[in-house]
Input
Amino acid sequence: MNEYIVRTNSTEETLQFSKELAQKLQPGDVITLEGDLGAGKTTFTKGLAVGLDINKNVSSPTFTIIKEYNGRLPLYHMDVYRLEDSDEDLGFDEYFEGQGVTVVEWAHLIEDQLPEELLQIKISHGEENSRNLTITPKGKRYEMLCKELFA
Ligand code: ATP
Ligand code: MG
Output
């Protein structure tokens, strides 16, 4: 399986990378974000929002589970960390199959409800402000996207 590793050395570098990724996104794309508390999942999402021409500040949707923003494409930002029951179906499919881009923080908690094809991004802490982003495309669409992005 293909896997790409991006190392960022600051918050700004992570924002810059996700902003670039956003340029390649299409309606219906799904990105899952994994990583410990404070790894940078929401930071990554903020960069995506900037790249999608969303001029609202993206904040953590922890208490609402899903927040929606309007830009070049709609952005559906989910954080399922506090979902009480991971089998609970909040109609996720409608987002995954919708006309926007869906980003899911703590996606493994709803593993069974995720689509088969998605772009998986795992963020791990390095020293101080460095982070390793391990990017795994699942499915043809995302393999193509990564090929373009990392060409
Ligand atoms: P949570 O699990 O609580 O939702 P999170 O993974 O969403 O956490 P963020 O809310 O994005 O994490 O917080 C990451 C913090 O780490 C921010 O304060 C950010 O500025 C800082 N940071 C430092 N270096 C980096 C980096 N290279 N990439 C991303 N964030 C970084
Ligand atoms: Mg977060």
